[in-house]
User: What shape does this take?
Amino acid sequence: MRKNSKMLGELTEQQIERLLKQQITGRIACTDGHTPYIVPINYVYDGKNIRCHSVPGKKIDMMRNNPVVCFQVDDIANIFHWQSVVAWGRFEEITMMTEKEHTMQALTKRIMSFCDTETDHTSHALTDNEEDIGTKIELIFFKIVLIKKTGRFEI
Assistant: This one.
């Protein structure tokens, strides 16, 4: 390859899996059948599913009504050096307490590895007091059961 030439290509299955496991923030796209909606969300990938939590709102309402979703994550070093994964799947709300606890523990462990200070906490942007979760704030746990994944890159 010449020094200044760029290359576009497809990620291998292993590269797709690595990118999904490396990143912590992706985007979920959902629709009400008329209007698409895409939002960033913190997640943890367990090798099969994208696991997340949220408070009630537009995306949860849309996914409950239409569970077909798309998930996207990327790693962008610069405009000419990036990797991106797009995955399609099905929203499933987590209702079993043991699975909720497992998901929260996995998210906490993953998110805390990115915290800068001991005062940072996983309830970021949800509440100032973690004890409000479950009492004053309804926290919804869900997973995106992945059906298809593709990936692209530029180097």
The radius of gyration is 17 Å.
